[in-house]
Amino acid sequence: MKAFFQVQDVDAVHALAQELPPLPAEEVPLEQALGRVLARPLTAPADLPGFTRATMDGYAVRARDTFGAGETAPGFLDIVGEVRMGRAPDFSLGPGQCARIGTGGMLPAGADAVVMVEHTRLLDETTVEVAASVAPGGNTLGPTDDAAQGQELLPLGQRLRPQDVGLLAALGQEKIMVSRRPKVGIISTGDEVVPVGSSPTPGQVRDVNTHSLAAVVARAGGEPLPLGLVPDNAGALREATARSLDGCDLTLLSGGSSVGVRDFTSEVFLSFPGAELLVHGVAVSPGKPFLWVRTPSGHLLGLPGQVASCLVAFYLLVEPILERLQGRPALPFARFARVPAVLVRNIPSAPGREEYLRVALRQENGHWLASPLFGKSGLLTTLIQGQGLVRVPKDCEGLDASEEVEVLLFPN
Amino acid sequence: MKAFFQVQDVDAVHALAQELPPLPAEEVPLEQALGRVLARPLTAPADLPGFTRATMDGYAVRARDTFGAGETAPGFLDIVGEVRMGRAPDFSLGPGQCARIGTGGMLPAGADAVVMVEHTRLLDETTVEVAASVAPGGNTLGPTDDAAQGQELLPLGQRLRPQDVGLLAALGQEKIMVSRRPKVGIISTGDEVVPVGSSPTPGQVRDVNTHSLAAVVARAGGEPLPLGLVPDNAGALREATARSLDGCDLTLLSGGSSVGVRDFTSEVFLSFPGAELLVHGVAVSPGKPFLWVRTPSGHLLGLPGQVASCLVAFYLLVEPILERLQGRPALPFARFARVPAVLVRNIPSAPGREEYLRVALRQENGHWLASPLFGKSGLLTTLIQGQGLVRVPKDCEGLDASEEVEVLLFPN
Prior knowledge:
Strand order of the largest sheet of chain A: 7-4-6-5-9-8
CATH superfamily of the largest domain in chain A: MoaB/Mog-like domain
Oligomer: homodimer
CATH architecture of the largest domain in chain A: 3-Layer(aba) Sandwich
Distance between the termini of chain A: 42 Å
């Protein structure tokens, strides 16, 4: 079938992505959890640390026994024991008593604070002079200071950072339920495109998109599966797409810059059983020719062939789908930091479509200045020389020099 | 030997790191180059794209033949051929002639611009009406627009991003010379620390640092090698350190919160042949107990035991060393984005040491507001609830509410 389909707004594409169900969960060992997405919230199975710990070396005390103590009026306490690391003390403190304790040690019963060793002077083996008062709780962590049993610590959909991995370790989680990584088939087309290992003759260029798409897919948490170069004809494209659908959740097709390929790609995608055209054209630059066909066995996506456009379109239109499949909100530019900057030149723009312009950044007096790289959008080097992107909204005739804009920084 | 050693400034530690020689280079296939660091600059071996390409579908023309053409005064051109994708055209254009061309096609000799198909009307098989003029070079990429032969495109020490991988592909680089990944042995100590799989009894806590350090090491481009938990005694520590030195470029020891361990760690590290004490104490919080011993077979580093302090100290003091070993400048917080924010509360600080405070961020009227998380620095949850760090400079009594500060954002 060949459907008439209207060019859609970027937001509409994100709304479609947001409706997708996340992929099923799988269990991974803690060592492999970094960067994965939690498939269920992390709730504390027990209090953390679970007991009162010293955060300084010194003496565990009853805080009230130190009240009023100071350099000129020190107090005196009896040392009745020493806390051993990793053991619950087998003694408790009565009035006027204290115990030696190291950082991380468990306070004995009766104690509610720690006096730092720097504020004490040992008089003899059983007596210490205390030259500072300490409030109850001073220099300690309470049993639930890091977490109370049952507390939600990390939400469903959290992408695990190093500190989150640390928290999972602290709570004894050796196996983590995370969303499965989306498998992404990558197909490049174009009769002018040759493999990286070839020497292009005049008129030919090397296959850049397979490699750069594999890189961004991996960074987005997906598993890239490069399927190679496919000649510019419907039969070869259908065969490669069928191979990708057999196992991949998502298929990315880039290239097809020649008119013919653009014409038959949607037909090939729609020839699979149950295929449904979701998007054919988006009111955005780059990304206008974006194509999204859903089939029962996977999503088929068409991207611009020019490499710079292809990468920007990926971050804007494909990464939200990958995010959602991993159980996260379908947001674009998920890995870009955002910084405010002042434009140094006008950016003219035609209303009616969103635009993403590459910019170079430099710092002046502690503020960022953004220069639009107008150059030719097919140039790979605009992604190398630039540091980020500036969005020109849809219903806007451009942005003015000296206007403050948000720059989306290319991830490292 | 036991050396007297003065507490050093953070900058002095970075200066020491900057003097280290990078690790030897190794060759990796293009598919494994993402995130690695270039061991030699990338110079274009040939022009890119190497020929003049169309960036639009339309007609290759001699620009001067279109001058003066417009909606009301169209020009007429003879169609003398069609450019096939991936082939050098075997014809050339004379005055008044044009050729069909698709995006990415190579311009025939004589042509110097492309008229977009939208600005033309086909009159018959050999005549096209042109309703717009085009400047020389219009809708084309020149032979050296992406790169000229011999041009340096990526510097030595570049950490390869997806677009860099694309550029390497475009230039036919199948094998890339990158710095070897630093191997990093990770040792945790502390008699109160038990493995993640254990159920801690009162007084015990699980081993968090091994897991969170492995995560940040991997993110910093290193190869983490967890060596497990080591009891708090000099013999066991020496044995584990020797194991790590046998193969690892760097050894990270964390824990040793008890007084005894702190006392013997530097002695154990210095007991290896040729060992040299570089740093013993840094004027910074967290990170004060940082220890750096260099031996002929590797660097031995001691980090604070409290997990939150340990991670911040890693980013500040260890990552610069890992960056340098990979051939990059020894800069801290290499993967943190920096955003300006306004403080919502005073941050008091003692002069004489730098301080890094965790902050929570929220947005208000398009600006970021940073609230310091004063909490207890041992708490892991300050790294979970916070979004970044604010630096309080060394010779400063603190920062004032409503002051603008730079926030270092925790990487995702």
